[in-house]
Amino acid sequence: MNIDWEEEAKKWLHQYGRHVLAIFVVVLLVHDVFGTHGFLAMHHKQQEIQKVGAELNRLNKENAALEKDVKDLKTDPQTIRKIAREELGLAQPGEIIIKLPVQPAPESPAAKP
After folding, report:
1. pTM for this structure?
2. Among the four residues 37, 62, 76, 96, which has the most C-beta atoms within 10 Å?
3. How far is Cα 68 from Cα 7, in angstroms, rounded to an integer?
């Protein structure tokens, strides 16, 4: 009886073994491409890493520029003078500041209802 089972298994493997192997290979390929750690997921993660890296570089440059501004505001008299003149309206002795009124921009005829 044991011999019959072995012969049936060999017969079944001989008849369907290639089909089972092909299905197994297809399932593995699909998993490697579409699975959670497959090719598409890894490609998406690499693109995300590149975007985050670009954003990090931009923020590092912005941070360096802000650090330079802070250093200039603490030590550079020219920068301090410029801000005092522009934002605070200060002048050096003997200078006169003339402020002109800001005129609103004229409306275009097409903008009126």
Report:
1. 0.51
2. 76
3. 83
